[in-house]
Write a structure and sequence with these properties.
The complex is a heterodimer of chains A (about 325) and B (about 425). Chain A has one domain: MetI-like (MetI-like fold, Orthogonal Bundle). Chain A contains 15 helices and 2 strands. In chain A, helix 6 runs antiparallel to helix 12 and helix 10 crosses helix 12. In chain B, the strands form 4 sheets. In chain B, strands 1, 2, 3, 6, 7, 10, 13, 14 and 15 form a 9-stranded mixed beta sheet that branches. The chains are: A mainly alpha (about 325), B alpha/beta (about 425). Chains A and B meet through helix 4 and helix 14 of A and helix 4, helix 5 and helix 18 of B.
């Protein structure tokens, strides 16, 4: 929800700015841009704006199964849902868990992505091509399928990972359950998310690296700079805008974690495996607390707003440089 | 003065809202299933769960044929999957094009009956209604009216390996709980394999754990006045829970984070001596479909084919699982829908279910079932001493909230003691069951 919300903003924000930067003398009054944008704006209003408004409305009501089935208007309850959510310690532990997971998974995937992108610049062309193709396959795999495959791999009774670890001398991993301890369970979930996230990061950053002028690096090397110094003082600063963008995007995506923990926990995640998205879904659709679920979603959107604002600002910054 | 007026206004508003909520059942007329109905050109839409498709599709087709002959109406049966079927139902019931007949699990029914999803029916219109299984019928009752028709039941039994019993020198299934434990010891002793567990009991199998709670006189929750009160931390419940936990820890190598959904398949791998399952799970353990996604593919024997037998679990009352059928409140063909249910739950249909190893909906038919189909005799016997989940509006939310499953995993992994786990579960039950 939070991810798809972003596109509504750029047109609105950019419209007043453009005339000031534009070299053309035509100012104000010109409605052509608005007319051209109108179909998109209308579509966005219908597909995103309306549901958003409805969701916010729902979060101030008390919609339960009875109201849903009978079509009777749910009662207005003011801020009740919000006070209930915000004063619930379970909710806050879910928020903390989601934030912690996002931080860890984003840092690990960006580091791996960057590492692989740098490696791709060093290897022979054929190998690079091979790496690309392999990552494209990972990228092309739908999340649901990937999660299901990981579930089978880590299954305690039939999983191949237990079988392999069990082959190590002196290790008994038969029937080992990966989800008894939250730490191990999250290790599996994070591995899946990082594994699926790397292709986008590596391929994008690799594309960014091709833009770093060879001459600069050569000059630095001639001047006696070590590889580490080249990376820190030339490559990374040039790559920074791109890194910031892909990191912010990863934050937005990983913050909304749903499919991976949902599937790995067989559609009923234990409290230790709930994230904001699954928690809101369980509340709304599992327990028919539709309004409470809506309130949680609204809070999630508000929490993400800071990150999204940052992302949009970065987008504009890049636009201005060009 | 102003404050008094405001308070009075608030009070009036509350009263109006309460009155509006309370008036639900009085104005819903009961749908009759007796007398002729002309259904020419009409189609009754039926949602059954997938079990009917895989195990007794013939019974469904036969009932529909007899229904069509009598009323002239057509029947369109759609089979649903258990996973997330409620989410689909909620979305459908919110619209206007709804199925006329819906099957739900008996523990799922109360929430929908309380929410006004189903119309009242007249029990006298249905065969065997005087002897309907209480565990099924209980879910249909609300404010003196009946909102669904019992369909079929399943009772859980002890399924064991006859070959391993013989090898361990055990000649008959256990008659008492102590014998059951002694047999488990013997099975364990006769096996050199360290992976072998005398009992396969997954950690989140709450129907089993709660059956053990019932075996010592404990309970999940009970109604005190208007309020539901969790009973798991009462001494009798804790005792039963402890008994289950001790047994699982000693004899089971099953994953403590799994539920019972895959137990027959896992048991078929041959690494366990006994498991606790629905009567028909003996068959699922002995034979599987060659292509699990195709219900018409040929059956293949597993490692344990011909080596299994079932018996009632001694001294442990069985949870009575099963399904009911209801006529949706929004249905445009209520009378026809009720008539279809009448045909699908009559003695002819029940005889078909018995043949397919499901338990019939009536105590009067249980003995018949036991003699006609020896495979379900233990289950039929177990069904006579059975229990059912609290008949509370919000019970389904307890299941969806994973309250009992989480508690069991926490206790088995040692994260909580039995007493602490039970106390925590009671707190969750009290909140969820009493929520307005």
């Amino acid at each position: 929800m939070s991810v798809v919300d972003t596109p509504t903003r750029p047109p609105r924000g950019s419209a007043p700015h453009r005339p000031e930067h534009a070299a053309r003398p035509r100012r104000r009054r010109d409605r052509t841009p608005w007319l051209l944008a109108a179909p998109t704006l209308l579509l966005l209003a219908a597909l995103l704006g309306y549901p958003m408004v409805k969701m916010v409305e729902l979060s101030f009501q008390n919609m339960r199964l009875r109201e849903l089935i009978s079509g009777r208007a749910p009662a207005w309850v003011g801020l009740d849902n919000y006070t209930r959510v915000l004063s619930d310690s379970v909710f806050w532990s879910v928020v903390l868990r989601t934030v912690a997971f996002t931080a860890v998974s984003v840092i690990v995937s960006v580091l791996f992505g960057l590492g692989i992108a740098l490696l791709m610049r060093r290897v022979a062309r054929g190998v690079r091509l091979l790496m690309m193709v392999a990552m494209m396959f990972v990228w092309a795999l739908p999340q649901l399928v990937a999660a299901q495959i990981f579930r089978w791999i880590t299954d305690s009774d039939f999983g191949v990972i237990n079988y392999l670890i069990d082959k190590l001398p002196g290790v008994d991993y038969q029937n080992h359950s990966w989800f008894v301890s939250p730490a191990q369970g999250w290790l599996v979930i994070t591995t899946l998310v990082v594994w699926a996230g790397i292709p986008f990061l590596a391929i994008t950053l690799n594309a960014g690296l091709t833009q770093v002028p060879k001459e600069l690096i050569e000059a630095a090397t001639v001047d006696g700079a070590s590889a580490w110094q080249v990376l820190r003082s030339i490559t990374l600063p040039m790559l920074k805008p791109l890194i910031v963008i892909v990191t912010t995007l990863s934050v937005i995506w990983n913050f909304g974690l749903f499919v991976q923990n949902w599937v790995l926990r067989d559609s009923h995640p234990e409290p230790a495996f709930q994230t904001l998205a699954t928690y809101s879904y369980t509340q709304a659709f599992g327990q028919s607390r539709y309004s409470l679920g809506a309130a949680i979603s609204v809070i999630t959107v508000l929490l993400m707003l800071g990150v999204m604002a940052f992302y949009i600002r970065q987008m504009f910054k890049i636009g201005e440089v060009d | 003065m102003k404050r008094t007026i405001a308070a009075a206004a608030a009070l009036t508003a509350t009263l109006i809202v309460t009155a509006a909520c309370g008036s639900k059942s009085e104005n819903t007329p009961t749908t009759s299933a007796s007398g002729p109905v002309d259904g020419k050109g009409k189609t009754v839409k039926v949602w059954l769960m997938v079990d009917a498709q895989t195990a007794w599709k013939g019974v469904v087709d036969d009932a529909s044929k007899r229904f069509t002959a009598a009323t002239g109406a057509q029947v369109n049966v759609e089979y649903q999957q258990w996973a997330n079927h409620l989410t689909k139902l909620d979305a459908t019931l919110a619209g206007s094009d709804v199925p006329d007949v819906v099957e739900l699990g008996n523990t799922e029914f109360p929430k929908y009956v309380f929410s006004g999803a189903f119309g009242a029916i007249n029990p006298a219109d249905y065969e065997n209604s005087g002897t309907w299984l209480q565990g099924l019928k209980g879910a249909c009752d609300f404010e003196g009216k009946t909102y669904c028709v019992p369909y079929y039941a399943g009772a859980r039994v002890l399924i064991y390996r006859t070959d391993l019993f013989k090898k361990a020198g055990i000649s008959a299934p256990p008659k008492t709980y102590d014998e059951f434990l002694a047999d488990a010891d013997k099975l364990q002793a006769a096996q050199k394999n360290a992976k072998f567990g005398a009992v396969y009991m997954p950690g989140q199998y709450w129907y089993a754990a709660m059956s053990w709670v019932k075996s010592t006189g404990g309970d999940i929750a009970k109604q005190e006045g208007e309020k539901w009160v969790g009973q798991l931390s009462q001494p009798a419940s804790v005792q039963g829970l402890q008994r289950w936990v001790d047994m699982v820890k000693k004899y089971s190598h099953a994953d403590v984070t799994k539920n019972e959904n895959e137990q027959a398949g896992i048991f078929a791998q041959g690494q366990a001596g006994m498991f606790y399952g629905n009567g028909w799970e003996q068959g699922s353990a002995e034979q599987i479909r060659k292509d699990p996604n195709d219900p018409n593919s040929p059956l293949v024997d597993t490692k344990v084919k011909g080596k299994l037998a079932a018996a009632p679990m001694p001294e442990v009352p069985s949870f009575l699982g099963g399904s009911n059928l209801g006529v949706t409140e929004k249905s445009a063909n209520k009378q026809l829908a009720a008539q279809w249910i009448k045909y699908f739950t009559d003695s002819t249909a029940m005889a078909g279910l018995i043949k397919a190893s499901a338990l019939p909906n009536s105590t009067a038919l249980l003995d018949k079932a036991a003699t006609e189909n020896p495979a379900i005799a233990p289950a039929a016997l177990a069904a006579k001493s059975s229990w059912f989940t609290p008949n509370a509006e919000k019970w389904a939310d307890v299941e969806k909230g994973n309250v009992l499953q989480t508690m069991l995993t926490d206790v088995l992994t040692g994260k909580k003691s039995v007493a602490d786990g039970a106390k925590w579960a009671d707190e969750q039950l009290n909140t969820t069951l009493n929520e307005s």
